[in-house]
């Protein structure tokens, strides 16, 4: 049944428009989103509609449309919004811009209490301008929904216009396009003036775009007539591609009209796609004494902590007989598992003996698609929600059949809880049985984590519902999943490093020996194209899906995000890293003390801004209580930025002294974000459109990793200095890209070579900054350790470092060693010596 249509008397009055108005734009979305530029989690929906289809937005999804309104007045925008399952911090927002998207004015918003699926109409008069940008966006969690229908723009043509007036869209988005393939867009050029408009020329500047049809050159257009140009987009490499279409004419107000062309080059994910992905050939005869069919389908909750192998894909697993596509919803998980929680470490005394929201998993309502024997969550990355402490990250799982499951199929899903506004990750597993219409209880448990200060077990089961439905873009989701699986670096057991290199006398006990075993989440070695990974241990046995074990970045993000994206911007726009911060971050220019004069992004990345309080230790400022309450615990961008700018007074010359400040990295990230918007446009984002589009997607980074912690406000500023999550394959790819591949992907140099050489401590003309930690240095967001190796030579080893015990070490012999742990242990000297047997450090 379609939702009711809420229409008040006031709305009826607002809907009245002058009879002489022209309709400049109308979209009911029944033909999809082709008339809009879409960002993030967007699609169409056929259930919450007025008629046909509606635009469907969630998380930070948005759609934009630019409309030329020059020569018109009495501009009226009409639309209807609906929402479902919004919480107090969730909104569905409609807004407009008259300055090409540099700033927006809100027209209306729906929030909690307006989320029953009813449509709310709105009508608003816009001030006269030459251009109008409409934007509808979601600011929600992963289980909350926004819908848009029947958008129209009407206006009254101005009388007496005696000059020609060119009318052309200000932007054309070509979307994702497979590398070395072509797509075309026809762009219409019209004359809304009373005198004839002469188009002198139409030209495209920029690579990857070309004019293939031009009926406008030399053409004279009378009033209300038009011509067309056709632009072809053919990307040759991956990433964001932009260009400009310029139209020279005799319009006295706009003689060189410009159209911004944008699109993304993407790898071809379809060539090796198979519908029945990784079929199973087992007999189905599985001996099971935990999480049996009868337990999962009982009215009694699971009350024990199972071994991890109960969630594993059995060796005799058979091909599933059902296809899961739709939404899985847990019923009242906040009341499940009471008393089934064991603390192992609670430094800040989060939980006591009584019940607490931290002891329960959050609300869960997420969609999945099945590709053969793989179950793929639609909502990847950090799923914001209403729980006060936890947010989900979902991973692809597996589906199979066991003969004892009464004809049902069985699924297991790895998941994680990430602490709200923080980076601790607690790893879990879910399991259930299902058929084409229904699902059993969902058993869940958490028995491992990467978190220095909060470690626990949580387990139980909860009733659930399965709502089968066709998932929009399901084929693309399946193709992307399979493409990632194919892109993974060849992985072998760590023990095979010995058998692959039998003559060098490797002692495996020395690899990873610097970390207490029960606090090691994952570790591994990359050498000669192979990723050798140890088993991922938990308190309940070996994790059955180690390749899908989600781990926090903490401060490795300073290198992997802030430093890397800055070097990317330097390659794109030489001189960026040495630009004054006061021209990039206006708040620094307004600092009353003038502490940010002569400070650059390079200084901020070096944590050598000259602004600090304590210098007895490089880490003294970072550990203060004021830093926690003023920066780390606050939710909004402006509060974080104001603290970062005002906290530390000028005490030394910028570039002369290293004092560790995550706040400096935040300022560098804000600078990169502002600069990206100034160069590419206000709708672009330094994380999504530079780091991910240009580097991470071509590298084959996992879809769930292409997300970052952001401030909890409309700004959504990426943290920069922490807040990423990785799989082990991501860690190897990112470390290899930075060191072995020298910032190049598929032969294309993406990072500025000079700045990367400084980060890798290879530039003899740029001395790294010493720290108060023995033999450790810092440059361009990279740590370095000076080591004298057995052969007697000195080497500088670059590495990324993260809170609690996270190290990505790029050894100078082409070996990468990484570990993720949570006992505050940062010791890999013995491992480095052992891995020197694989190849010499000095030549």
Structural descriptors:
Jelly Rolls, 5 domains, 15 helices, disordered N terminus, HYDIN_VesB_CFA65-like_Ig, signal
List the helices and strands and how they pair.
Blueprint: H1 9-15, E1 22-27, E2 37-39, E3 42-45, E4 54-57, E5 62-68, E6 72-84, E7 91-97, E8 105-110, E9 120-126, E10 131-139, E11 145-157, E12 166-167, E13 171-178, E14 183-191, E15 197-205, E16 209-214, E17 220-221, E18 226-233, E19 239-249, E20 256-266, H2 293-296, E21 326-330, E22 341-346, E23 365-371, E24 374-377, E25 382-383, E26 390-394, E27 397-400, E28 409-419, E29 425-434, E30 442-450, E31 454-462, E32 464-468, H3 474-487, E33 491-493, H4 496-500, E34 520-527, E35 530-533, E36 537-538, E37 541-542, E38 551-552, H5 556-572, H6 581-584, H7 586-589, H8 601-605, H9 625-632, H10 637-646, H11 662-680, H12 686-699, E39 725-726, H13 728-738, E40 744-745, E41 748-749, H14 753-759, E42 769-770, E43 776-779, E44 782-788, E45 794-802, E46 806-810, E47 816-821, H15 829-835
Parallel strand pairs: 13-20, 33-35
Antiparallel strand pairs: 1-11, 2-5, 3-4, 4-11, 5-10, 6-9, 6-11, 7-8, 7-10, 12-14, 14-18, 15-17, 15-19, 16-18, 19-20, 21-23, 21-32, 22-31, 23-24, 24-27, 25-26, 26-28, 27-28, 28-29, 29-30, 30-31, 34-35, 34-47, 36-37, 38-39, 40-41, 42-43, 43-44, 44-45, 45-46, 46-47
Helix content: 10-25%
Name the poorly predicted regions: 1-19
Average the pLDDT over all residues and give the rounded result.
92
Shape: globular
Secondary structure tally: strands: 47
The largest β sheet comes out as: 12 strands, antiparallel
Pfam family, one: HYDIN_VesB_CFA65-like_Ig
Main location: other
Subcellular location: Cell projection, Cilium; Cytoplasm
Protein name: HYDIN/VesB/CFA65-like Ig-like domain-containing protein
